[in-house]
Specification:
The protein is an alpha+beta fold. The protein is built from 15 helices and 7 strands.
Amino acid sequence: MPATRTWTAPPLYDLRSNLRVLRRGPYDPCYRTEGDAVWRATRTPAGPATLRITADAATACVRAEAWGPGGEWSLERLPALLGAEDDPSVFVPHHRLTREAHRRHPGLRLPRTGLVMEALIPSVLEQKVTTHEAHRAWRLLVRRYGEPAPGPQENLYVMPDARTWCRIPSWEWHRAGVDNKRSATVIRAAQRAPRLEEAASMELAAAMRRLQLIPGIGPWTAAETLQRSNGDPDALTVGDLHLPGIIGYSLTGARDTDDAGMLELLAPYEGQRHRAARLILLAGRAPARRQPRFPVGDIARL
């Protein structure tokens, strides 16, 4: 029998929307939705675990079942995963759009997994490639080198441990479409996994510095990681191809906003800049694309 835990959610809580940021593409082998349930396979400090999470909107009760040696660890941290440590009440809108988005999404909570490597490795895979390529690489590598998740859900996998990431042969990275620069960054991070996991309990500035000590990890990757592992409301993604343009257009109607312009626009939200960006994206006001996406490459054919 699985271990279980319940949590009383705040009003209008949206389980699937809040946890969706942890999914790496529609075919993520570590994440699945089935009916009203979210299934999540994870590698905890206590070992692999599977969570099945459901929410009852009528009673505001979220129920989780857990399997595997890491099940108790996962249930102990369930409220943080669901966003209980996030406080959206401190957010002060400074634009009409963020005010309206904040009103329309009162159930938005930022999840905190407490697991750095789980968020870091797929973020590294997403560097300088299309999301399709990155999600394909994550899917192939986890299915080949991970392990079946504990519990009754088939086709759910736990990502490889740090030692296994370090032992993946170069031709398998190549076959998954991962270039040498990204694979080397993953390996360097995996070799220092215990030190990087410590960032989960650090303040944002210190956590950003800790992750960026690894060559190949810059501000973009560090922020994308800490948004998930730490649930940090100020971990704004800088260096993204599209985000500055979307924020600039959404708030001012101007096109071609760069990182500096984005930071200036979001300066009033200091401490809550990631939440502001999430709300702006949820508002769905974006300029038409005027440049092609990154071309989809096929490293395995080179």
